[in-house]
Amino acid sequence: MSASQPDPIRPIPALLSLVVPLYNEIEVLAELHARCVAALEPLCGFEMICVDDGSSDGTRQALRDLAAADSRVRGVLLSRNFGHQAALTAGLEAADGAVIVTMDADLQDPPELIGELLEEWRRGGEIVSATRRSRAGESRIKLATASGFYGAFGRLSGIDLSEQTGDYRLYDRRALEALSSMHERSRFLRGMSAWIGFDQRAIEFDREPRFAGETKFTPRRMIRFSFDAISSFSHLPLQLATLLGFVFSILAFLAIPIAIGLKLAGQFVPGITTVLLAVLLLGGIQLITVGIIGEYLGRVYDEVKARPLYIVSELTDRQ
Ligand code: UDP
Ligand code: MG
After folding, report:
1. End-to-end alpha-carbon separation of the chain, Å?
2. Which atom of ligand 1 approaches the CA of 25 most closely?
3. What's the CATH code of the domain at 144?
4. Is the C-beta atom of 25 inside 6 A of ligand 1?
5. In this predicted model, what pLDDT tens digit does every residue of 154-194 receive, in sequence order?
6. Same domain (yes/no): 196, 260
7. Is the shortest distance between the CB of 132 and ligand 1 below 6 Å?
8. Most buried one in 21, 117, 138, 293, CB count within 10 A?
9. pTM to 2 decimals?
């Protein structure tokens, strides 16, 4: 430890919970387990909560076997695929540790970093995020869309998220409890964990390419996820309709004296084409704004139904 680092103020925790969501990750499971155990064993007592998000490739059975062989592994098997954020939530709610770490299964987030996250917690951090210094093995399109999304999210929501932050993060128990009190269905844990406050810190790492298998995020899922994130933290898209309404009303008012002036001067007032274009343009804008309102309304409907975020079909430690 360098001289500039303050001494730890917290003792080593009795139990650390590592939460890992898995969706069709059979190829990485053994390596994941080996590397996590190697990284965590020297640190403190731990439990590894593996949430199976409705896999169909044998991950479920492999998890049952792993949990039977290693009592520190706890499998939470969801009844179907509920998505990354819901799976993370399921794991967070099952966690018993004083310190909880969430991490992707594909080893893009190296488990060896947990020691550093833990050190930062011991020095007083309550939420410690691992931010990517570099991202190997990710497509240019993914990087460009990610940067566009984080820019838009920051401007619309006023919450400044680093573009390089994913869901590799350590939570103090107190911070996790605050997070668990947020029951919204459109979950965007990165935004939510920034929103709750507390002592937030970040450490940097180099992101590795996926160990095996393929990304589970199709472009369609990414778009949904982005709109979920923005709509749950900002009403600006809704207010856009009001703004557009004002802009076009002002334009229309300005056009009235012009039209009268042209008429008095005996000028030809351009006819059908202009009218048609104006109608089409306004019709298009109206449909877009109605669509935006619909997106919010659909989410309000989902919230009102208050369905559970996920359904657990099996816990390996409770038969
Ligand atoms: N994942 C999940 N449910 C899903 C999609 C993904 O639990 O519906 C998990 C996946 O197994 C991995 C993590 O979420 O552990 C991140 O997924 P992935 O690596 O495919 O995303 P990327 O790193 O490409 O953004
Ligand atoms: Mg990944």
Report:
1. 45
2. 11
3. 3.90.550.10
4. yes
5. 888 877 777 777 889 999 999 999 999 988 888 888 888 88
6. no
7. no
8. 21
9. 0.78
Closest protein CA for atom 14 of ligand 1? 84
Which phi and psi angles does 159 have, rounded to 5°? -100, 120
Is there an atom of ligand 1 within 6 Å of 217 CB? yes
**127 and 266 share a domain?**
no
Residues 54 and 182 reside in one and the same domain = yes
Q: Which helix (H) or strand (E) holds 272?
A: helix 272-305
What single string gives the DSSP state of each residue in 92-123? HHH---SEEEE--TTSSS-GGGHHHHHHHHHT
Compute, in angstroms, the gap from residue 43 CA to the centroid of ligand 2.
Answer: 25
Distance of CA 246 to the CA centre of its chain: 34
| Cα torsion 277, 282, 283, 289: sign | positive
The residue segments making up the domain with residue 253 are 236-305
DSSP annotation string for 128-172: EEEEEEEETT--HHHHHHHHHHHHHHHHHHS----TTEEEEEEEE
pLDDT for 3 beyond 80: no
Rounded Cα–Cα distance for residues 153 and 138 (Å): 21
Inter-residue contact 187 to 85 (CB < 8 Å): yes
- Looking at the structure, do residues 104 and 129 belong to the same domain, yes or no? yes
Q: Considering every ligand atom shown, identify the ligand nearest to the alpha carbon of residue 218 and give its number.
A: 1
Of 127, 117, 99, 122, nearest to 8 (Cα)? 122
Regarding whether 230 and 242 lie in a shared domain, the answer is no
CA dist list (Å): 243 to 152, 157, 248, 250: 18, 17, 9, 11
Ligand 1 pocket residue status of 104, Cβ below 6 Å: yes
Quick check: 191 and 157 in contact, CB under 8 A? yes
> Band of the pLDDT at 1, cuts 50, 70, 90?
very low
- Decide whether any atom of ligand 1 lies within 6 Å of the 77 Cβ: no
Q: Given ligand 1 and candidates 22, 82, 84, 312, which is best to mutate, with the most ligand atoms within 8 Å of its CB?
A: 84
Pair 284, 228 in one domain: no
